[in-house]
Design goal:
Blueprint: E1 7-12, E2 15-21, E3 36-39, E4 49-52, H1 65-73, E5 80-84, E6 90-92, E7 96-103, E8 108-114, E9 122-129, E10 134-138, E11 144-153, E12 160-162, E13 167-170, E14 176-181, E15 187-189, E16 193-201, E17 205-211, E18 219-226, E19 231-235, E20 241-250, E21 257-259, E22 264-267, E23 271-273, E24 292-294, E25 296-305, E26 310-314, E27 336-344, E28 349-354
Length: about 350
C-alpha cells in the first residue's frame, strides 16, 4: 500500500481495452485475486468495467505487447496435444511406431487414424490411459500420403487433437507380378480350359480379369485367388475376339499389376456353312448368298459361272453376293461355281470348291 500507480492498462483476452492515466491513483488497501475492482477514472461511464483480478504482477517498467501476449498464454496449453505423428513422417507398413501426445486433466483417450486427410476415421484403440502419453502402433497395410492421427477424450468428445499435417504410410517392397500366359499371339478356343500363368513376389493374393477390347473394359475372372500357385485354370468364355488381354492385380495394392504384353484371340470351333441356293428377287427372304462361319478370321470366295467367267468376289466373313453381275445387272438363273479359302482362328486354312 502507499504506492502510487501512474498508469493502468486494461486487457480482455489479451486485447487492450483502455490505457488509463491516473492523476493520483493512490491505493491504500490490500489487493488480491478475490478483490473486486471498478475502473472508472477517466473512462466514459458506458465503458465502465467490473471484474475479478486473474493475476497480479508488479513491474518497474512498462511491458511491450509481445510480453503481454506471452503472459496471457501462460497456462493456456490445450488438454490434449498430438506430438507424433504430427506431419511429414514416413511410416512403413508393419513397423511399430509410437503415437505420442501430452495431456492435462484427461483420464482416457480414444485413438483413431485417417488415410484420406480426415474424411473418415478408423479406430486404433477404443480407450487407453491418457497419462501414458504414448501408444505403440503397428502401422497397417493402408498406404497413403494423406494420413492423420486423432486422440479424443473418452468422456468429452469436444476435447481432442489431431496431427497438424498429414504423414505418409508407405509399403517398402519389391512386390511384382508378371503375366506369362496368355502373353500375346495365342489363339484359344471357346469352351477349352487353358492355364493363365504368372510369376509374383511379395504378393499374397491376386485378382484376375480379361478384356475383349484391348483393355478398354475389364471383366472379372476371379475376384481373389492365391498368388503363390502362379496358375489358374480358365474355361475360355464365348466371347470371340482378336483383341483379348488378361490382367492380374494384387488384391491389397492396385498399383501392383501386370497384363498380357500383346493381344491374343478367343475363337469358336471352326464351322463353315454354305447354302446351295438363293433367290435374289428382293422379297426380303434369302436374297443374298455367302458363307456362315464360326471360328474363321478371314476368307476369300470367288464365284464364277459355268464357263469360268468371274461373277463376284466375297472377301470378308460377313460378305455377301446380292445376285448381280459386275455390270450390276442381275445374274441369270443357273448354276455357279465358288472357290473358298478361309483362315481359322486355329491357324489352319480351310478350302472349299463346290457349286
Amino acid at each position: 500500500s502507499g504506492n502510487t500507480i501512474r498508469q493502468v492498462k486494461i486487457y480482455k483476452d489479451c486485447t487492450l481495452l483502455s490505457n488509463i492515466v491516473l492523476s493520483i491513483g493512490e491505493i491504500n488497501s490490500t489487493i488480491n485475486t478475490s478483490t473486486k475492482l471498478r475502473f472508472a477514472n477517466n473512462i466514459p461511464l458506458s465503458t465502465t468495467l467490473h471484474g475479478k483480478i486473474d493475476d497480479i504482477r508488479i513491474y518497474n517498467r512498462a511491458l511491450i505487447e509481445s510480453e503481454i501476449q506471452a503472459l496471457y498464454l501462460e497456462g493456456e496449453q490445450p488438454p490434449l496435444i498430438v506430438t507424433s505423428p504430427n506431419g511429414g513422417e514416413r511410416w512403413k507398413v508393419r513397423d511399430i511406431q509410437p503415437i505420442t501426445w501430452t495431456s492435462s486433466g484427461v483420464d482416457n483417450i480414444k485413438i483413431e487414424y485417417s488415410i484420406d486427410n480426415g474424411i473418415f476415421w478408423a479406430i486404433i484403440a477404443e480407450s487407453t490411459a491418457a497419462t501414458s502419453g504414448s501408444y505403440s502402433w503397428t502401422v497397417p497395410d493402408t498406404p497413403s500420403e494423406l494420413c492423420l492421427v486423432k486422440i479424443t477424450s473418452t468422456t468429452d468428445g469436444t476435447i481432442f487433437d489431431q496431427s497438424d499435417a498429414v504423414f505418409t504410410i508407405y509399403k517398402e517392397t519389391n512386390a511384382q507380378i508378371a503375366v506369362t500366359s496368355p502373353n500375346g499371339g495365342e489363339r484359344w478356343k471357346v469352351g477349352d480350359i487353358h492355364p493363365i500363368t504368372w510369376t509374383s513376389s511379395g504378393v499374397d493374393n491376386v485378382k484376375i480379369e480379361y478384356s475383349i477390347d484391348s483393355g478398354l473394359f475389364w471383366a472379372t475372372i476371379i475376384e481373389n485367388t492365391s498368388a503363390s500357385p502362379g496358375s489358374y485354370s480358365w474355361t475360355v468364355p464365348d466371347n470371340p475376339t482378336e483383341l483379348c488381354l488378361v490382367k492380374i492385380t494384387s488384391t491389397t495394392d492396385g498399383t501392383i499389376f501386370d497384363e498380357s504384353n500383346a493381344v491374343f484371340s478367343i475363337h469358336n470351333e471352326v464351322s463353315i456353312l454354305i447354302p446351295n441356293t438363293f433367290t435374289p428377287n428382293d422379297d426380303g427372304y434369302n436374297d443374298s448368298f455367302g458363307p456362315v462361319t464360326r471360328g474363321i478370321g478371314s476368307l476369300e470366295m470367288n464365284i464364277n459361272d459355268l464357263n469360268g467367267r468371274f461373277v463376284h468376289k466375297i472377301d470378308s466373313v460377313n460378305g455377301r453376293w446380292d445376285g448381280n453381275m459386275p455390270s450390276r445387272s442381275k445374274a441369270p438363273q443357273g448354276v455357279y461355281f465358288y472357290l473358298l479359302k478361309a483362315m481359322g482362328y486355329d491357324s489352319l486354312e480351310y478350302i472349299r470348291d463346290e457349286t
